[in-house]
Amino acid sequence: xxxxxxxxxxxxxxxxxxxxxxxxxxxxxxxxxxxxxxxxxxxxxxxxxxxxxxxxxxxxxxxxxxxxxxxxxxxxxxxxxxxxxxxxxxxxxxxxxxxxxxxxxxxxxxxxxxxxxxxxxxxxxxxxxxxxxxxxxxxxxxxxxxxxxxxxxxxxxxxxxxxxxxxxxxxxxxxxxxxxxxxxxxxxxxxxxxxxxxxxxxxxxxxxxxxxxxxxxxxxxxxxxxxxxxxxxxxxxxxxxxxxxxxxxxxxxxxxxxxxxxxxxxxxxxxxxxxxxxxxxxxxxxxxxxxxxxxxxxxxxxxxxxxxxxxxxxxxxxxxxxxxxxxxxxxxxxxxxxxxxxxxxxxxxxxxxxxxxxxxxxxxxxxxxxxxxxxxxxxxxxxxxxxxxxxxxxxxxxxxxxxxxxxxxxxxxxxxxxxxxxxxxxxxxxxxxxxxxxxxxxxxxxxxxxxxxxxxxxxxxxxxxxxxxxxxxxxxxxxxxxxxxxxxxxxxxxxxxxxxxxxxxxxxxxxxxxxxxxxxxxxxxxxxxxxxxxxxxxxxxxxxxxxxxxxxxxxxxxxxxxxxxxxxxxxxxxxxxxxxxxxxxxxxxxxxxxxxxxxxxxxxxxxxxxxxxxxxxxxxxxxxxxxxxxxxxxxxxxxxxxxxxxxxxxxxxxxxxxxxxxxxxxxxxxxxxxxxxxxxxxxxxxxxxxxxxxxxxxxxxxxxxxxxxxxxxxxxxxxxxxxxxxxxxxxxxxxxxxxxxxxxxxxxxxxxxxxxxxxxxxxxxxxxxxxxxxxxxxxxxxxxxxxxxxxxxxxxxxxxxxxxx
Length: 805
Description:
Layout: E1 4-5, H1 14-27, E2 35-36, H2 78-86, H3 90-94, H4 110-119, E3 123-127, H5 132-140, E4 148-154, H6 176-179, H7 182-189, E5 195-198, H8 200-203, E6 207-209, H9 210-218, H10 223-237, E7 248-252, H11 254-268, E8 278-287, E9 349-351, E10 358-366, H12 379-388, H13 399-402, E11 427-433, H14 437-448, E12 454-461, H15 472-481, E13 489-491, H16 517-520, H17 552-562, E14 569-574, H18 578-587, E15 595-601, H19 626-629, H20 632-639, E16 645-648, H21 650-653, H22 659-667, H23 674-692, H24 694-697, H25 701-706, H26 708-715, E17 722-730, E18 742-744, E19 749-756, H27 759-771, H28 782-789
Parallel strand pairs: 1-2, 3-4, 4-5, 5-10, 11-12, 11-14, 12-13, 14-15, 15-16, 16-19
Antiparallel strand pairs: 6-7, 8-9, 8-10, 17-18, 17-19
Helix pairs in contact: 4-5, 5-7, 14-26, 18-20, 22-27
């Protein structure tokens, strides 16, 4: 194994995937293997391919940045990506943690790692995802093609039906890996490199049967075998179905089988009869990249041709790439009235004759097991379990055996809740966040406030803002660090209100590379320094419904039940308003009766001024702010609901978005807490990235301004604020250029708008709160946690003995 690169435009998200791989390699003692992911290069309008294109987008949609839509990726359920990013919770619960981690601008890119590996000499390439990374390499470094000995492709469906279970109504013939970027697959298969394809035709013949599962349970002698079985358990828990034909669980050994076929070919040769695991035959195949009639488009579906004087990449008008290109899983062109089988064939690995045909070896079925005494009917299944349990090159430990005194401890505060504040009980607060870096600073600030004043009852997160849903595990880690494992975390929607559950409405505006998802999903590389919480996301298990992860509404309902007589909830939102809008308009129509006030961080109020928005990836939209733009209908629902609302718009956020102001206030203190050190380290990093790489990190002050919401909600009049009542309305679900726009209109609902404050008092309070040793973190970092787990422990209870008053 020379190197691993990650497909960043399919079933996993880059930041979560790279750290997952680092942990697996650490378990296996292979920290020597480089891992490449992403990159911030682009492809120019003229078709010039830069050397570090990240592969976040399919080639047909790749421009000069990493933001963009999800033409093909929308076929993958967002819940599926969450399950893969977390491995259904198994990843965090089992894998050890080493020293390697994603770091902004230091992480090796996919192109760099792949180029280094191929430059060393003849190399075999296994493609277990989309073909984007290899296609980009062959386009930008064509000389390296001669070093590609053979490409083994896991994917395609030649004579079998496709597997786009979410999109068969538009495309019944494609397979996910090829469909994720059909043009990239076309380039790889037509590159002249020898190809062996292991399509659904073959993998459909190697289902996970009950007999295999039982045998797998019996053979658990290594850590890697245990991890693979737990991973399989997670997959099967989500896919409980049976087939009378072969006691089929509905799950197949797709990629493992492809790897087995590839290894056997490397050892025994690439002939039709030499492979020990699969029957292979030569076929003439191509990849369909557009639909007939060719050259007759008038719908803007094909950026290679539409709106251009000359086709991109020198493609030929009227050729096989010049037809209609599927725009999404509900593309009207693809749907056939009265039928559940569509007519589009994008990504179809089709047998053809003539100049488009590429001869390649294709696996057609798994070979039977010749060991008649085995309960397993396929040769590969037998070998798979044998290899996983070999004592050679085995895993060294899991997280519980990595440390001699490992224990999972839940930190919870003492009974200070019995203390009442002056004038009554503590104020119940619910914090709704989209897990941007600023939101984590806000969360820490809320946790630092005296509990007899502010009682943070719950955290709600959504996955349609600046981080993917799997980043909920970072929330758990921050709460663990702060000794608040008692606070429930509810997982909200991953799509905007009223939008299809499959898609990326408006979130396409967030970069996927530097300064975007890959950084937020890793807390800019700092997530790995946090102590590891015993709590984590766990996928739904039909056999154990009690393990279901709580939704945002589940948590809201629980908080509401806990309210005492006369108590009402104060809500702080610091992301798209999806969760709160869903609660008040769909799930709990009477929620307004228990909401005292909502503090909304976001929006731009243009009241005779020319304040601009911050949606920098959509130049046509000059006046929207991201939290409003990402879900304008939710913003409209909340802000026009008649609730008591205080709006903290971008106008005033910009007045406290000075890194120098916050860092200067922190520098005045000589004694620090673990949380102040973490915040300082994060802000210093964001400041450094903004200074040194403005192209990708010019917007870092957006996150700093978000913290104002938490501080103002607590401090209020102490910040000498200027607040005005304005009647506002939101432009929602119209055109991209005005979505999220806030208009001042006399006939609209009135809200309080924060316009200014004493910035010096703000910075001082923020710093003073963070360095206050009361309610400080009982465990400050993963390094501290490792030290605890490495020595005998006298006593660890579930309550914190520290002064949390």
